[in-house]
């Protein structure tokens, strides 16, 4: 199949990113952050093309991870703030997550009570999803 938008030298299938368009969108997000005081973090569930992280981290303050693997990707490749959220955490996941994240959101008071001591000892900020 021929695609008039892609050079025939580009293998198919493949992921293609228009870096100029990506940077334009990142500049818009940076402006929103600056004007609002909000921090915009990259949701790895929606966009985890780590080859773009050197560009993206120039504009966004960090990533949000919904699994240990995403947290490892964020900590290792994005190298900025890492926020974690998942509906539930196993004790083994908490042990792996806490050294990787700056913030963790719990889904219930029960989760917070279960992991409070570990979280505070690790120096990780925490929140409860309402």
UniProtKB/TrEMBL annotation:
One of its GO terms (biological process) is lysine biosynthetic process via diaminopimelate. Keywords: Pyridoxal phosphate. It comes from the Bacteria. GO terms for molecular function: diaminopimelate decarboxylase activity. InterPro entries: PLP-binding_barrel (IPR029066). The keyword Transmembrane helix does not apply. Its cofactor is pyridoxal 5'-phosphate. SUPFAM superfamilies: PLP-binding barrel. PANTHER family: CARBOXYNORSPERMIDINE_CARBOXYSPERMIDINE DECARBOXYLASE, DIAMINOPIMELATE DECARBOXYLASE. This is Carboxynorspermidine decarboxylase.
């Amino acid at each position: 199949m021929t695609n008039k938008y892609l050079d025939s030298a580009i293998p198919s299938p493949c992921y293609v990113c228009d870096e100029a368009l990506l940077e334009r969108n990142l500049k818009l997000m940076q402006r929103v952050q600056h004007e609002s005081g909000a921090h915009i973090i990259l949701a790895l569930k929606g966009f985890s093309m780590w080859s773009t992280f050197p560009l993206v981290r120039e504009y966004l303050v960090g990533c949000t991870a919904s699994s240990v693997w995403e947290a490892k990707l964020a900590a290792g490749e994005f190298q900025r703030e890492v926020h974690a959220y998942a509906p539930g955490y196993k004790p083994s996941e908490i042990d792996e997550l806490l050294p990787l994240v700056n913030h963790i959101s719990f889904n219930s008071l029960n989760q917070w009570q279960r992991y409070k001591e570990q979280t505070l000892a690790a120096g990780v900020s925490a929140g409860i999803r309402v």
